[in-house]
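Usage

Read records sequentially. Each one opens with the input sequence:
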Amino acid sequence: MTERLLHFIWQFQYFNRSQLQTEQGESITVIAPGIYNTNQGADFLQAKLKIGNVLWAGNIELHIKASDWNKHAHDNDPNYRNIILHVVWENDLQLAGMPVLVLQHRVSSILLNRYQHLMEQQGFVPCGNSLQQVREIIWLTWKDRLFVERMERKTLHIHSLLQQSKSHWEEVCWWLVARNFGIKVNADAFEIVARSVSINILAKHKNSIQQLEALLLGQAGFLENDFEESYPQMLQKEYRHLSKKYSLQRPQVQIHFLRMRPPSFPTVRLAQLAAFIQSSNHLFSQLLDAETIDDLLVLFNVTANDYWHYHYKFDDPTAYQPKNLGKGTIINIIINTIAPLLFAYDSFHSLEIHKERVLKWMQQLPAENNTIMEKFEEHGVKNSCAFDSQSLIELKTQYCESRRCLSCSIGNVLLKFTEC
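and closes with the structure output:
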């Protein structure tokens, strides 16, 4: 038994409630079990009980053992003065003046065995073999909640970035878009580079793609070599001039090429990012004004400078291949950067318009294709759009991996005695 499981059992009243009695012999009728409290204080707030002939309203505290009350020093804590019932699994200590309810012999062994089974599973998700038993309506309502939780969690991070930027939405947008261009391998490094050269500096050089490339590739450390070709030599001179002009400090970042397809090389990505900066105008304002996915596809439809049609790296010529930003990459940016940004903006300003827009886009965009999605589909879980895939990623990373089955709607259903 764990305290979280005991909380779950009390919250949903998954125990034999017939002829409930305190250890002192008084009858108990649970009118309302209370509101589960994850903050400081009692475990359940605003409960209503009838103990004997008296109606009580107050808080309820739960422990594995009754003696935990003293171990947790609740005696002298003012947060625990309004306790109307102490619910325990095992009554190993008689506490004077407090009604105690013991649940050890009132909980079905079926529930306990099911919980133990979930905790011991080593597969993709603890309940993988049972997922197909869960009705579609359960999945729909749970995915709704998971998607919102994912957006809210990302919103907290974006609001912290907003504080760092002194409430500069355009700057935060620049940081996050740059991070996405770095893909997973170089995301941190690209964000650091973006932070090292502000969007205001870049805006002053929008008329020169070479100067934009020089600033980004230089800050990323790609202009430090002795080059043979004239183009990187020119970028190098531009960077030295601009670096001195703006007193830029080049960040110490490690940028990786290993196990990466050439179109995703960081040199190409930075060149595409420079082309995107040149083509956009007040980027965040443009995102706020975008009403359709097509508006965003047009906004991000950029191609790197001509030099990169014949290169993936400096001084290493290749066959002609335009380095345009592919549709799949743009969709990834919409899902993982634009959607959270607009959601965070609405949360900050108490709006709903962009949240509604994001929800519509997520239902229109195709589902993401990754290992997590493949595994869920193998277990029969529907994944038909980006809304589904974002919800399932949240489920896997925030619930399944940490065995939060008791906080998961799917886990709750599978632990119940009723039909799924």
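Summary fields computed downstream for this record:
- The chain has a mean pLDDT of 94.
- The first helix runs from residue 3 to 11.
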